[in-house]
Amino acid sequence: VVLEAVRQDGLALQFASADLRGDREVVLEAVRQDRWALTHAATALKRDPELQPARAEPNAIAGPGARAPVIDTAAPRALPGGGWEVAVARLSGETAELRLAAGATVGDLAREASRCLAGGALVHMAFPTGPVRPLDDSAPLGSPAPAAG
Question: Which residue intervals define the domain DUF4116 in the entry (predicted)?
Answer without folding.
Answer: 1-45
